[in-house]
């Protein structure tokens, strides 16, 4: 099966895939067959297969990097809007070098860059900002955020899309 081939719901993938395979969004396993349950473009990278499609709402997946807005806070965690059906939870100790006494004090509407650590259809997603580069975005610098479709966001972060490198030749910028 070639990459970027369009699959419709119910289409079976041919058995040419060998070895252990990680099944991603848009596909599920029935007996020994992989079947699509969405319409989309078939994608394969190393031992991973998934369908790329345009969907209206973000469905959190484990280890996804996300940009979110703080919409509420309590003494133990922040509530973060990441564009999904439910707000995510960000524990106050889920920051690099955070302790009970020393942790970032974020206000409502602050922008954070985090990683999804819990993604389950029956529970709210959970985030962390432990790795370098993750955490609150610097609010003292001029910044601009905009909402784009999930399909465009996934295209932009792929290695083969030339738009960001073209902009980078003209202007210094950062992308989360």
From TrEMBL:
It is found in: Nucleus, Nucleolus. Residues 21-57 form the Exosome complex exonuclease Rrp40 N-terminal domain. It holds the Pfam family RRP40_S1. GO terms for molecular function: RNA binding. Its main location: nucleus. One of its GO terms (biological process) is exonucleolytic trimming to generate mature 3'-end of 5.8S rRNA from tricistronic rRNA transcript (SSU-rRNA, 5.8S rRNA, LSU-rRNA). SUPFAM superfamilies: Nucleic acid-binding proteins, Ribosomal L27 protein-like. GO terms for cellular component: cytoplasmic exosome (RNase complex); nuclear exosome (RNase complex); nucleolus. InterPro entries: Exosome_RNA_bind1/RRP40/RRP4, NA-bd_OB-fold, Rrp40_N_euk, Rrp40_S1. Keywords: Cytoplasm, Exosome, RNA-binding. The keyword Iron does not apply. It comes from the Eukaryota. This is Exosome non-catalytic core subunit rrp40. It comes from Clydaea vesicula.
């Amino acid at each position: 099966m070639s990459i970027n081939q369009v699959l419709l719901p119910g289409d079976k993938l041919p058995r040419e895939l060998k070895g252990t395979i990680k099944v991603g969004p848009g596909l599920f396993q029935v007996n020994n067959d992989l079947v699509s349950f969405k319409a989309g473009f078939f994608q394969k990278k190393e031992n991973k297969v998934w369908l790329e499609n345009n969907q209206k709402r973000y469905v959190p997946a484990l280890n996804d990097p996300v940009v979110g807005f703080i919409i509420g806070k309590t003494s133990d965690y922040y509530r973060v809007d990441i564009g999904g059906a439910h707000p995510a939870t960000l524990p106050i100790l889920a920051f690099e070098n955070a302790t009970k006494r020393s942790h970032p004090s974020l206000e409502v509407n602050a922008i954070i860059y985090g990683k999804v650590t819990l993604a389950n259809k029956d529970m709210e997603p959970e985030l962390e900002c432990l790795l370098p580069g993750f955490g609150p975005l610097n609010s003292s610098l001029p910044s601009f955020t905009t909402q784009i479709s999930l399909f465009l966001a996934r295209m932009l972060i792929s290695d083969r899309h030339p738009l960001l490198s073209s902009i980078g030749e003209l202007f210094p910028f950062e992308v989360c």
